[in-house]
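[job 0412] stage=complex_fold ligand=S-adenosylmethionine status=START
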Amino acid sequence: MSNSATAARRSAIYLLDQILGEGRLLPECLAAGALDRLAPEDRARAQRLTIETLRGLERVDRLLVDHLRQTPALTVHNALRLGTVELCQGEAAHGVVNSMVEIVGRSRKHGRLKGLVNAVLRKIAADGPDAWPKMRVPRLPEWLRDPLIMAWGEEAVKGMEQAHFNGAPLDLTLKSDAEAPDGETLPTGSVRLRDAGQVSTLPGYEAGTWWVQDAAAALPVRALAPKAGEKILDLCAAPGGKTLQLAAAGADVTALDISDARLVRVRENLKRTGLKAKVIAGDALEHQGQYDAILLDAPCSATGTIRRHPDLPFAKDGSEFGELIELQARMLAHAWTLLRPGGRLVYCTCSLLPDEGEVQIEEALGQHPDMQVDRSALGFSGVEESWITEEGGLRLRPDYWPERGGMDGFYIACLNKSA
Ligand SMILES: C[S@@+](CC[C@H](N)C(=O)[O-])C[C@H]1O[C@@H](n2cnc3c(N)ncnc32)[C@H](O)[C@@H]1O
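[job 0412] stage=complex_fold status=DONE, emitting structure tokens
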């Protein structure tokens, strides 16, 4: 077994310890440098192993429970979990088992458990790969599954779970007339790639003729329909996918975000694509000005992005969502004061919870007599009638387009202000 494969596995176990033990999100761990010491290919491998283990965790734990008299320390458990996923996905048994035995064996605290790791993984190697495809699609934890069933019904949630298990293809938004990698053009205009590999090696990356953006995430700006020369505020802009769309339309864009670190990505993205926007670090609740149009992509539970972020259901427990819902309402109320009479505002969240979407808009309509929902803003190509909600927003879910590979969950509403 190569040292490099073992290093990637050791790092994946560390990431699993952080996510499952400390409730940290994978992007937080990466930003804190968890994989900085690895070579680029090992970094990619460690991330892929972590993600695949989390996607299959329910199956993994059901297989392991038959072979464990008691649950071992978390890090040993995670080594067994990772080994189980690799074995069930067809990785050669001797490589996986030796590597996990070496990793656990070198631990001062848990080294004595290397015999257990060896014995358990050998049993998994014998019967796991046959059992794996017959097991049920992993379910969301109850704290999230229950409210989603209340909102969308059990069949829909099973469809979402299937989409989460399948993972997400790579979607690109093209700058108009752009050169792009060969892929499937989706009904809404995004280009979808399967097995894309390393993004920076795809044609057009250096030239900045496209950017990575889930097909659903590209739709809020379609609903806003920016025009050249309009003064547009992107209130929660980072990392900037929607800022790029607004700038590509020729709008005079102000991109604001509270996070300096995340704004670095906005600036990098603008530079690579050769697009222009005024970038401001600041709090949306304190920003002042008057704009023709506003995009409010509010901070949210991100429960619509689990296909790409399977760490979320394990790192979170829903306890922070109440604060987020309150912040969204305050942001929407403040953003409304920044919109000129006759202007339009698109509110969106990448959430599956109606409290962060449909309910926010229903409540805002009750508070602002000069606010109307513009259903006609959603009449662009690829939008299906059944996606339009009662109050006139657009509800997108991961179980939509199953034959095409799904989409992120999103809520989008276009609000007009009386002139
Ligand atoms: C859903 S993300 C935005 C994604 C972005 N619109 C895009 O398309 O790439 C939400 C953003 O809100 C920012 N944010 C959170 N609280 C904020 C506040 N009080 N003022 C401004 N930005 C805030 C976060 O830093 C985060 O970048």
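The radius of gyration is 23 Å.
[job 0412] exit 0
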